[in-house]
Write a structure and sequence with these properties.
single chain; about 325 residues; alpha+beta; Phosphatase 2c, domain 1; five-stranded antiparallel β-sheet
Length: about 325
């Protein structure tokens, strides 16, 4: 069986000074394990063992994955078994620190390699591109709501203004970001919140189900930090989404699937800091596409809407990509 012989990875912190490490974690064990984890952004200053809650969750799960492939016979590899181990370990790690109810969470995109078969595990919106063509990535509908809310608020603030200075635009971004993160209750008039909900319903027509529209007012009022967690690993609601947080992982964005290793020429595992993949399986191409997106829509209110945009201090998100290939082409 032909082996993966070319490996390259890049992980960039959203902190432009790179003082704060990214919440992303890349994992690689030669011919055994390949993947990325994207720790959920924390809305508090809580640190666990000196790192953010998201990075703690990502590191904890990455360590379990590495231990699993080192201690398990490849013929017994099971992505589902690994998922259960990561869930148990993260739960135990939080419990022993009296943080059982802490919202430490991470996405997952990985594959374990038994020599004949690649066993994939996807949790959340981190993804993988297979053979440079097939992209497996699922975006959660609840992000559409908060992205639409941010875009609508910024466009309303910009209406009738010729231009803003960079400092003014940064101040507007940070003000809007805080409102989206912590909720609009008490920050805007009730009639304005009702109008915003109506505008979102109009812009997302036919993209959401009825239960999502019914949840809109409460989500806008509470924001991401307190409104979104109720939908973590919740089945039976269209806004439910899968996340590794030490509890049972379930949702439409949790995938387990396998492929014969012989059918795979390249794998690119990536976090959602990359809004579009590179044109080909190279680090250079992924970074070029990232730069293109940034130049095309720096405020993330046009062609590439997002919950955040870059500021002079931060990129809009951490970004990470791991590429493994069976050829030795240039990266």
């Amino acid at each position: 069986m032909k082996r993966f012989t070319s490996v390259q990875a890049l992980s960039v912190s959203k902190d432009k000074l790179e003082i704060a490490p990214p919440d992303d974690v890349v994992v690689f064990q030669d011919q055994l394990l390949y993947g990325v984890f994207d720790g959920a952004t924390s809305f508090s200053d809580l640190l666990i063992d000196g790192v953010s809650t998201g990075r703690f969750a990502a590191l904890s799960c990455a360590q379990v994955a590495q231990s699993y492939v080192q201690s398990t016979q490849p013929s017994s590899f099971s992505a589902e078994h690994l998922l259960h181990r990561m869930t148990h370990q993260l739960s135990e790690s939080l419990s022993v620190r009296a943080l059982k109810h802490c919202r430490a969470a991470t996405t997952i995109s990985l594959a374990i390699d038994d020599g004949q078969t690649l066993h994939f595990l996807i949790v959340g919106d981190s993804g993988v591109r297979i053979n440079g063509r097939e992209i497996v990535q699922i975006h959660k509908p609840i992000d559409l709501i908060f992205t639409s809310a941010r875009v609508a608020m910024i466009k309303k603030a910009l209406a009738g203004k010729n231009s803003l200075t960079e400092a003014e635009m940064t101040a507007l971004e940070l003000k809007t970001r805080q409102a989206i993160a912590h909720g609009l209750f008490g920050k805007v008039e009730p009639k304005d919140m009702d109008q915003l909900a109506l505008d979102i319903q109009t812009s997302l027509r036919e993209q959401l189900l009825e239960d999502a529209y019914q949840a809109l007012p409460a989500l806008l009022s509470k924001g991401i930090s307190t409104g979104q967690p109720a939908f973590m690993n919740q089945c039976g609601h269209s806004l439910g989404y899968a996340v590794m947080n030490g509890h049972t992982v379930q949702g439409p964005d949790m995938l387990l699937f396998s492929r014969p290793k012989s059918s795979i020429q390249s794998l690119e595992f990536f976090t959602d800091g990359y809004m579009e993949p590179g044109a080909d399986p190279t680090i250079r191409s992924w970074e070029a596409q990232w730069a293109f997106v940034e130049a095309q829509d720096p405020y993330k209110i046009g062609s590439y809407p997002h919950i955040k945009c870059s500021t002079p201090q931060e990129h809009w998100d951490d970004r990470s990509v791991l590429i493994v290939r069976k050829d030795s082409g240039l990266f």
